[in-house]
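U., I forgot to send this yesterday:
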Amino acid sequence: MNASTRLEDVLSAVSTILLWCFVVGTLLLTLALGLFLAAGDLAYQVHSRVFDLSEHDFALIWYAWMGLIKIETVPTLLGIPAPRPENEALVPGKSHCRKSGL
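Result:
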């Protein structure tokens, strides 16, 4: 097994992990939005009794939580590396400088 094949395997594994992170994050975001739209009033009633929250504070906390999920999810999707074994700069052990003859 050469370095290029190992690098391809590592990049493929990282790509798969990041893709699953994106899928799970998107599902969490969809679930949070669905819960907020379907049962927002009920959730507000329960939480306002326990924590003495105003309706504005409850909505602010909920949207901040969804914003954090978005901040986690979108860069995860954009960070998925594409394996490029033909690029010599990605292959460990290769010299990245041209021989100058000096």
